[in-house]
Amino acid sequence: MKDYFKFLSFLIILGLNIFVCLSGLTIKTASAQAMDYCWIADTDNSQVVKISRDGTELFRSRIDHREPYGISVNPVDESVWICDYSSSQVIKRAADGSELLRLTGFNQPYCCSVDPNDGSCWVADTGNNQIVKLSAAGGEIYRIPGFNEPDFVRVNSHDSSCWVSDYGNNQVVKLLSTGAEVVRVGGYNRPYWLSPNPVDDTCWVADYSNNAVVKLNSAGAELLRLPGFNRPASVAVDPNDGSCWVADTYNNKVIKLNNSGLQLFEVPGFYHPYDVEVNATDSSCWVVDRWNAQMVKISSTGSELYRGGNFIEPFYCSVNSNSVWITDAPNNEVIKLNSSGTELYRSVAEFNQPADIVSDPSDDGCWVADTTHNQVVKLAGDGSQIYRINGFNGPSGIGLNPSDAAVWVADSDNGEVVKLSSTGAELSRTPGFIYPCDVAIDIKDGTCWVSDTDANTILKLDSDGSILFSLHIVSEPHGLDVNWSDQSVWICDSGNDQIVHLDTAGVSLGRFSGFLYPEALSVNQKTGYVWVADSDNDDVVKLTPGGAEEIRISGFYYPEGIAANPYEGGCWVADTYYSQVVKISETGTE
């Protein structure tokens, strides 16, 4: 998904059905039904929300996690602790996945480690530059400052000490169970991962940017420094024999070393392996094969026992004797597999960065471009799911023709525009685009206008999806909207810092300057006035039907979405970097 898709998509229904899309948002007018609600695609929160006209929340889709990273299972009761990075929370779940605790007061916690002796949990509170120790019940025992972006913690179950990779300081630190610091050693370059051996109290370190693996004694003295790796991201010691597994990330292989650091074997066939974790019961090793989006289980002798999983980009795992927990951060999910790879539990994330939304006046529901899930979803008016349609790749724009209830989708990463029936059946699929980001429907004839951002092109499709013509008159076009009364189209010619007005045949009716990378606009279907989100100028602009600037309103911070209010003459604005929605009157007052 392009980096201009930023924060919030929303759909506003005020008299006419008006929706705003493209997570930063492009706005479109969809239907002329009087409805008293608003659908919102809250992109970065990966949720869809429905509110009444007075702001009362009517529905919110469910999401259990937001970018979960660090995870640690307690082998005693099989509960699991999770660092929910983007929500700045630490969550504890039972073995069946039910939520036991949800703790706030953190700032982008990245890693955690359970002490099986008492069930306490150490947390790398990365954004606060602190290490926090929690009781099994979630109470804060210690909060230890003095770190610089600590990103990894690992408990030694033998003495309940905790080893810390102090990433920003390029140091490795050892804390006693009391929180006292007993070791701080330097000489590292972005140390990523630690694995203490409870048998002899040594600790293995993945010295990532030094391309080395290091073994320390309990006092922090260096016993081994092994070069020859390429960005080793993680290490995992097997307490049964002291051997160590290494994710040799940029060499795309996993290596097993003996206790003395000699290589026993290597296992190729990975693509950016990121996390390795040993199951001490049988000395097998689970590997997070990150860019293959798979989990792999390897026997103690290096044979592959399992490969699979339904992930987007798994990051970390934590192994118990008969199961493995995985965090799939981009998917906002936590997954549990048994020792054979069968899925036992998956947290709920109904949407993942939904970039666009359009209301369906037939049932007060909506259609959603669920971008990172690569799906299009139909919700009923109460928020219940009716259809979830696969076959897309990063869809970012969506529009509905209320005359026949057909849905048009800008299937951005596939370079296609797709037309669906009201029941989700595919009616047409038009290829040949580079990155279509927005669609606008002409309700009089069912044609569809498309802004192909990366091709610097505007195209018009007939109602069957055939290309009628293409116009190479724009640079990085974003939002566009059709005026129903005269079938003309208004376009954000973002790269040229202009707004373009074309008639239904594509003939220019005007080109208007004075903007700076405008990303969204919306036509008032009653008056023909056009509201523009002048994004890089941090302004909102009102144009007359002839394109003359009538009002310019400052005080925004990169507005990316806008929706005209046909009843009152004003507009609603998605003020992206201020993370707010602003209502503007017809005369430009807030």
TrEMBL record:
Q: Which residues cross the membrane?
A: 7-27
Q: Which Pfam families match?
A: NHL
Task: Reply yes or no: does the keyword Cytoplasm apply.
Answer: no
Keywords carried by this UniProt record = Glycoprotein, Membrane, Repeat, Signal, Transmembrane, Transmembrane helix
The stretches annotated as NHL repeats are: 229-260
- So which domain of life are we looking at? Bacteria
Q: What is this protein called?
A: SMP-30/Gluconolactonase/LRE-like region domain-containing protein
